[in-house]
Amino acid sequence: MNQNWHIETQAVQAGYRPGNGEPRTLPLYQSTTYKYDDAQSVADLFDLKSEGFFYTRLANPTVDAFEKKMAALEGGVAAVAVSAGQTASMLAILNIARAGDHIVAVASLYGGTVSLFTNTFSKLGIEFTFVQPDADSETVRKAIRPNTKAIFAETLANPALIVLDIERFAGIAHEAGIPLIVDNTFPTAYLCRPFDFGADIVTHSTSKYTDGHAMAIGGIVIEKGNFNWSNGKFPDFTEPDPAYHGLVYMENFKAAPFSVKLRVQFIRDMGVPMAPFNALLANLGLETLHIRMQRHCENAMAMAEFLENHPKVSWVNYPGLKSSSQYELAKKYMPKGCSGVICFGVKGGKAAGERVMNSLKLAAIVVHVADVRTCVLHPASMTHRQLSDAELKAAGVSPDMIRLSVGIENIDDIKADFDQALANA
Ligand SMILES: *Cc1c(COP(=O)(O)O)cnc(C)c1O
């Protein structure tokens, strides 16, 4: 792979380079298994002594190409694609924390992530402390305990649209000898590369802008490659793994110990790989990532201004607006644009907002976000339904919030649709 290529070229070409006479486009390897000539070759694969494919639960050539492209786009050394964005958040944590450990999370998070952290992980004995994204550094430092294994946050929070000060949180994490894990689903690598600002692990729900067409659920965990797992806080990386005849991840897999460990321990044992066909679709989506993201940003900026000036609209939250409290952070971390999601409220509150949503013709009500088609959702009654009032407030969700995901249709048609719907507010 040519490391000097620009991100647009990587989006089209990285991950799969055909040899002479091989298919020009990434083939779908729809096979659970792989054929070998002798038993020793397979034994060596099982012992991780040689590299290759032997069972699609662990690795598959189509998924592998997608992983390599995502790693190239984010500027990481390796990536592991998994069954969903939820799986990516789960395994990024499980790979470094076990029962008795603790994680600091920035509170403005996707509802599913909050539920995973507060409900499921607490049953597994992993504790979380939530801090506000604008908490002063001393408060964040105080939340870190001797058994804290990471800080977890979203670059651009879904749906609060709060921009993470990545450098600040990375600095605090590194002082404590722990990694910063960043969910970069909303900006994608095209708008922001968290590794460039000090993040150590990046996760994505590839179900969103990566696929971009709302066709395939998936997730990915990407490793930057320079975190020091040998600092005494992460014995699972430096002590022999009895599950693999005593190999040591920091010695045997120096280049990408986090990714190898995540794959061979958790994907193997829990059975949560990305399906090859989903990797094929996500890879196809990535081929137009840069073009799509440009149009999403352009259309969202225009819609944010349109809504801000609309007499029926009470408030608009979009980090690209000068009126946004996130404007300065957005300029630093997302100079090319603030992605395609806007939140707003309608005068008259929740009931008026519902009437607007029900009157839309081009924009659809769907439980999704971040694809080519404009859509809306009401977080408090849909994606964030399971959260308590206090959790809703912490996640930045107000009862009247409408989340608008601006697609790549013609902007005049999108505006006209909202104009006629707002007339019914
Ligand atoms: C959707 C989403 C997830 C969960 O991803 P799934 O693919 O739906 O499991 C995680 N984080 C963010 C920011 C999301 O938007």
From TrEMBL:
Pfam family, one: Cys_Met_Meta_PP
Signal peptide: none
GO cellular component: cytoplasm
Record has Transferase as a keyword: yes
Positions of post-translational N6-(pyridoxal phosphate)lysine modification: 208
Naturally occurring in which organism (per UniProt): Victivallis lenta
Keywords noted in UniProt: Pyridoxal phosphate, Transferase
MF GO annotations: cysteine synthase activity; O-acetylhomoserine aminocarboxypropyltransferase activity; pyridoxal phosphate binding
Keyword flag Signal: no
Protein name, as recorded: O-acetylhomoserine aminocarboxypropyltransferase/cysteine synthase
GO biological process, one term: transsulfuration
